[in-house]
Write a structure and sequence with these properties.
- It contains ten helices and ten strands.
- It is of the alpha/beta class.
- The strands form two sheets. A six-stranded mixed β-sheet has the order 6-7-8-3-9-10, sandwiched between helices. A four-stranded antiparallel β-sheet has the order 2-1-4-5, with helices on one face.
- Helix 6 runs parallel beside helix 7 (191-204).
- The longest helix is centred in the C-terminal third of the chain and has 14 residues, at 191-204.
């Protein structure tokens, strides 16, 4: 961190999916996140880590304007996608959420068939192609096809937790996003299902940019290419970015004591 308190940029290949510039997030009058400037690498996995209440999920939801749906929620600053600020007045939030999909902490398939879970969101977004091909492509993309191909008309709620989460990932893929956000996608899953999701992420990153919030340090170290560490400011309780860099570097040689304390388990 430089003398003016700004986070020092890390070296990059210059291919960014998103660029955050002086982002502040508010819930009514409370500033939950402050001064976040961060470039997200394209077709890489970036992990947001930090203790509870540090703003990492708030930042994640700001990336596809999900915070707009919370009463009093607002975002200041710029979040740039292809040179366009996603918070400009002429930007459609629904289109933002199509291009930047999201997978939530708890698997939340619709109370519909496996097939309908995939088709519904695609049709809402104007899909006119062959739905059978779409279903197979998305389920294969989520490494679920072989497990469910003979029961596509059965309810998605009948799947195991890990299968439900992969179904939600398949549903997110169906709208053809560029970026997929994952908010603690494995916190409700057992270790075997967690490893399947991590393996899936490594396959998906060939085609998508993935940003994941996780409390699991081992998961961040295993699965991500880049890591951003957030911490709550003691003075105003706003979350702020402490350090960002390549995961291997951040975990083996962090630049800041706060980061070292957290990843080594000495935090608090």
């Amino acid at each position: 961190m430089s003398a003016n308190g700004k986070t020092t940029p890390v070296s990059s290949n210059g291919k960014y999916a998103l660029k955050l510039q002086d982002v502040h997030c508010y819930y009514s009058s409370f500033r939950a996140v402050k001064d976040v400037t961060l470039d997200i690498e394209a077709r890489k996995i970036t992990a947001f880590i930090g203790p509870s209440g540090c703003g990492k999920s708030t930042v994640l939801r700001a990336l596809n304007r999900m915070n707009d749906l919370i009463p009093g929620g607002r975002t200041e600053g710029k979040i740039m996608l292809h040179g366009k600020n996603l918070y400009d007045s002429d930007v459609d939030p629904v289109e933002v959420r199509r291009r930047i999909g999201m997978v939530f902490q708890k698997p939340n398939p619709f109370p519909k068939s496996i097939k309908e879970n995939i088709i519904w969101g695609a049709k809402v977004n104007g899909y006119k192609g062959n739905t059978d091909e779409l279903v197979e492509r998305c389920l294969r993309g989520a490494a679920l096809w072989d497990e469910v191909k003979d029961k596509l008309d059965q309810s998605g709620l009948g799947l195991s937790g890990g299968q439900q989460q992969r179904l939600c990932i398949a549903r997110a893929i169906a709208t053809q996003p560029e970026i997929i956000l994952m908010d603690e996608p494995c916190s409700a899953l057992d270790p075997i299902a967690t490893l399947k999701i991590e393996d899936l992420m490594r396959e998906m990153v060939k085609d998508y940019t993935i940003i994941i919030v996780t409390h699991n340090m081992q998961q961040a170290a295993r699965a991500s290419d880049y890591t951003a560490y957030f911490l709550m400011d003691r003075d105003d309780r706003a979350g702020r970015l402490i350090e960002y860099g390549e995961t291997d570097q951040l975990f083996t040689n962090p630049a800041h004591k706060e980061t070292e304390d957290y990843i080594s388990g000495r935090f608090g």
